[in-house]
Automatic annotation (TrEMBL):
It comes from the Bacteria. InterPro entries: WH-like_DNA-bd_sf, WH_DNA-bd_sf. This is Transcriptional regulator. Gene3D superfamilies: Winged helix-like DNA-binding domain superfamily/Winged helix DNA-binding domain (1.10.10.10). It comes from Glutamicibacter uratoxydans.
Length: 145
């Protein structure tokens, strides 16, 4: 039966399982997956809310996600992990330290998800998914990832 299941089935299943793993791990530390992603973007450089929304847009396509990151940003500001000044958000030292700890946990999930794949198998899966995305209209030159 498994061999007859289409690509979409496996993509949705794996995405759901990844979300569950991330949610369980990150929630133990008082942060959502979207907040962790915001911290990652702000680790690269300060950003406006609009820039953060654009950077996270693939993740907000889900009907169970809010249309904006405002709630996530407010919680991160309240926790002292980010600051907001002159229309831009920036990560604080406390946020950076927390992100480093959370990143270690996320890396464990990533390692677990590919545990039975050798490097070439993992690379082949990623390359195939990128080709599929391009075939369906994704353009890396216009993408905000």
């Amino acid at each position: 039966m498994n061999a007859t299941r289409p690509l979409g089935y496996w993509l949705k299943l794996v995405d759901s399982l990844i979300d569950e793993q991330f949610a369980a791990t990150l929630e133990e530390h008082g942060v959502t997956r979207r907040q962790w992603q915001v911290l990652n973007l702000l680790e690269q450089q300060p950003a406006t809310e609009a820039e953060l929304i654009a950077g996270l847009s693939p993740f907000f396509a889900s009907p169970d996600e809010p249309d904006s990151v405002a709630e996530h940003l407010n919680e991160l500001v309240e926790s002292g992990w980010i600051t907001h000044a002159d229309g831009e958000y920036s990560i604080t030292d406390r946020g950076h330290t927390s992100l480093m700890k959370l990143s270690e946990l996320v890396e464990r999930i990533r390692t677990q998800s590919g545990a039975d794949l050798d490097g070439s198998e993992y690379d082949a899966v990623v390359a195939a998914l990128e080709k599929i995305a391009r075939n369906l209209g994704w353009d890396p030159d216009t993408s905000k990832d």
